[in-house]
Amino acid sequence: MRSGIMTSMAVPNPIVDTLERAGQRLTGPRRAVAELIVAREGTFTAADLVADARVRRLGIGRATVFRSIELLAGLGAVERVDLPSGDHAYVTCIPAHHHHVICARCGRTAEIGDIGVGTLARSVTRLTGFRVDEHHLELFGLCPECQLAEDR
Amino acid sequence: MRSGIMTSMAVPNPIVDTLERAGQRLTGPRRAVAELIVAREGTFTAADLVADARVRRLGIGRATVFRSIELLAGLGAVERVDLPSGDHAYVTCIPAHHHHVICARCGRTAEIGDIGVGTLARSVTRLTGFRVDEHHLELFGLCPECQLAEDR
DNA sequence: GTTTTTGCAAACCATTTGCAGGGTC
DNA sequence: GACCCTGCAAATGGTTTGCAAAAAC
């Protein structure tokens, strides 16, 4: 795959779009990080991106990768998830209320809309008296492909 | 060695029970950590316990605190939760399938049984084809007390 | 008595920060 | 041209590890 670093106007990059829409500066390094993220399917860690950048010899420093991820997380373009392993990873996502299912084998993810967690939160309030303001739901399992692979 | 300090055989400690049941060695430091955990209401971090131990002048090292927490997490006596702040904290819990609501203000928690996340997982499978094996649900909000405090 | 656990300190590793130079708007 | 962003390297802070002494079974 080519990435030509950042000349591909042809390939639409939703993350770059998010940056533009938010009025953030579209710098070379940010575009590059955006490309790296889009090039990855599934979850990725900061270290993954640093490694990717290194392999492709983009001269991007660790700090910039971390700062870009932070920026994107703030904009809701990526979301931090805590893997069962304890690692911090990120997933790209459309900025809307939703959740992810994460494949424990390949890291691929699927987005799912608000599947009734709100209702669930309401019943928690009824049961405990706690007011629920926020929630994190992460589902882990196997994607269809990896289920097949497992059966072999 | 036995930590003096908290010799209360009278106070039943569910965490100590868990250790015994699991056939783990009941060492002084482990008991002490168990006591510290029980003494805390709500979430706590490894650093909290280290500080507590220090204040009470139990001669317990950082490493031991981390190792004990790890052990207890493996046994399901405590569970790791990732706070919205990004910190890693732990909550004590009864080893059964359940979730927690965490007060964002005081850290107090309430346990809740399986409130239909299973059903929810099933519908995710239907929608995405992912097999769901595991899930993390954390709810954050305000406990009854802190709601009152806020209104003031 | 054998095996496991502990405390200490050093090692690690991921993430953050200070700062001078360079890029973006 | 002003201000923001970047890279580098050093600092940070949480967590882990190696090892000899001590405790548990």
Write the layout of secondary structure elements.
Two copies of one chain form a homodimer.
Chain A lengths: L13 H8 L6 H12 L6 H10 L6 H14 L2 E5 L5 E5 L6 E5 L5 E4 L4 H12 L2 E12 L1 H8 L1
Parallel strand pairs in A: 3-5
Antiparallel strand pairs in A: 1-2, 3-4
The structure holds a DNA duplex (25 and 25 nucleotides).
Describe this protein with a few key phrases.
two-stranded antiparallel ribbon, alpha+beta, DNA-binding, homodimer, 152 residues, 20% strand, globular, three-stranded mixed beta sheet, 6 helices
Describe this structure in words.
The structure is a homodimer of 152-residue chains. Chain A is 42% helix and 20% strand. In chain A, strands 4-3-5 form a three-stranded mixed β-sheet. In chain A, strands 1-2 form a two-stranded antiparallel sheet. Chain A is built from six helices and five strands; from the N terminus they run ααααββββαβα. In chain A, α3 packs across α4. The first copy, chain A, is α+β, with helices and mostly antiparallel strands and 152 residues long. The longest helix of chain A is centred in the middle third of the chain and has 14 residues. The interface between A and B is large, with 36 and 36 residues. The structure holds a DNA duplex (25 and 25 nucleotides).
Strand neighbour order, sheet with most strands of chain A: 4-3-5
Summing up helix and strand content along with how strands pair, one would put the structural category of chain A as alpha+beta
Largest sheet: number of strands, sense, barrel closure of chain A: 3 strands, mixed
Distance between the termini of chain A: 30 Å
Shape of chain A: globular
Mean pLDDT of chain A: 88
Alpha plus pi helix count of chain A:
6
- Taking Cα atoms only, what radius of gyration of chain A do you get, to the nearest Å? 18 Å
What is the string of SSEs of chain A from the N terminus onward?
Answer: HHHHEEEEHEH
Number of strands of chain A: 5
Oligomer: homodimer
How much of the sequence of chain A is in beta strands?
Answer: 15-25%
**Percentage of residues assigned to helices of chain A:** 40-55%
Uncertain parts of chain A: 1-8
Greatest interface and its participating residue counts: A-B, 36 and 36 residues
